[in-house]
Amino acid sequence: VTEAFRQGFFTTTSVQTTTGFCTSDFNQWPFLAKGVLVMLMLVGGCSGSTAGGIKVIRLWIAFRVMIAEIEKIFRPNVIRPIKVGNSAVDNDLKLATLAYILGILVLFIAGAGAIMVLEPAEHECSFTTAATASIATLCTIGPGLHQVGAVENYGWFSAPSKIILITLMALGRLEVFAIIVMFDPKFWKGV
Fold first, then answer.
1. What digits encode the pLDDT tens for the residues 154-165?
2. Most distant CA atoms of the chain, gap in Å
3. For labelling, which of 12, 29, 99, 112 has a CA lying 20 to 30 Å from the CA of 184?
4. CB distance 118 to 107 below 8 Å
């Protein structure tokens, strides 16, 4: 039990902080444990950290927005500001947070779908492999599950899939918006 706790704690910390270290083959873990790892891959670290992923603070803001919107259904006249610490979150930040989370989810789905389509039949790329490869690169984790798990690697992917994964990794490392703004003509007109 102590060894299982130690391995679980180390792997969870490694996934959450996106260091990419593995001391055990978590593909052998129970389904629920792997599901928790995948969720932590998407969440990533806290604000201000170099960890990838959506970030805890963005999920907290999104959760608070959801609760506030549900409350508006039952109490339409109540105006309750969403606060992080002592600071109120303005509407632009709420919208940007929700847009970022939606953008990550769209990129994850598009990346996993593209990998499933691009991989030749002889590679037998499973949905789990494609999905966790997409998450692991977009959120800069390192290992995923199944054929890209802790004791596997990405070397077997075809060149087009590797280009998709490299693109996802660059988007994730630069937190998506930094790349997207480069393609916005309004941004360049001010320069």
1. 999 999 999 999
2. 61
3. 112
4. no
